[in-house]
Amino acid sequence: MPNHRRYPAPGSGPMCPPIRAVHAFHAATTLALITALAGPATAARAAEDTEATEAAATPGAAPLAEQVLFVPVHGGGVDAELETTVYRPDTPPPWPLVVINHGSRGLPDPHQQPRYQPVEVARYFLDRGYLVVAPMREGFSKSTGRWEPSQCQTERYALRYGPDIAGVIDWFVAQGQVLPDQVLVTGQSNGGMVGLAWSTQAPKARAFINFAGGVNTTYRNCDWAAAMIEAARSLGAKARIRSLWIYTEDDNIFPPSVSKPFFEAWHGAGAPATYRLFPHGGHPFSQTRSGRQAWGPEVEAFLKDVGLPSRPRGAAQAPAAAAAATAAPAASTPVK
Fold this sequence. Notes:
The protein is of the alpha/beta class.
C-alpha cells in the first residue's frame, strides 16, 4: 500500500476534504512524478484491462493548474479515499460539474498506475465553465479501498465501481460549490464501461459520455467481447440517462467489430443513446488535441440537447460543425 503521508498536512482552501490533506500540483512538475511512478511497468499490457497511454498536455499550451484531493467515499462495502485531480474554472462558483473516469493500464498492481490527468477533456470543459474532477477508483494509484479484477464478469465488475462515481458526485455537491442539476459524467476505456454501469444505479447526473469504453482481459478462456455485449444487453435495459458513445475505426483495443455490437446491445435493450464512429484517432482519441477538435462539436451538440452548458464562454453563436467538417463521424446511430 502506498504511503499517503507523503502529502503535507493540513491542506487549505476551498473544498478541503475532512480526512486527507490537500496538495496542489503544477502540471509541468507532475509530469516527472508520473514518469517516476510508472517506470518500466507501463509496458506491462498483458494483465487485466488494457488502455493506451494518455497524451501529454497540448504542445505550446499553458499548463493547467490542478489540485489533488483525497475524497472520502463509501463504495464496495468499505470506506475509501479516492485520489482526485481537480481543475477549477476561472469563474466564481457555483459551477456545473463533470466527473471524468480513468481507464486501466493492466498493471499487475493497480497502485502502480499513475494519477489520471485528462488534460484535453479538462480543457474542453474548463472552456465551458465546468468544475472538472478526475478520481482514481478504489485500489488504483494512491486511492485506498479494494481493487477487483473483472475475471470475465464484466457486468459485476462495472457495477462494483459505480458507488465510487456516486460518492465523488455527492461529496462535491455537498461542498456547495457545484450546481446539483448540472452534473455530467464521462469515462475513457475501462472507465467508460464502469460509467455505463453507474448510469443504471439512480445516477445524479444529466448524461454520460463514453469515450472508447469497454473491458478486455486475458483471463483464461474468456471471450471478453462477448462478455461486454452481454453486459450491455443486461445493463442497457436499466439505463436511466442518455449517453453519447464515441469510438474510432482505428481503435486497436475496441475496433468497430466490437464497439458496434456493444452499442447495439445497449441501445437495443431500450437505453437512450447515440453512437459516433470517427475515422481515425485510435484508442486515446479523447486525450489528444486533434481528437478534441474532432469530437468537440459532437459533444457540444449533445450537451445542448441534454440541457447542460455547451458553448465556450464568450463564444459567438455560430455553427460549430464547420470547425470539424474534415473530421466528421464516419457513421452514427440516432438517439432513441
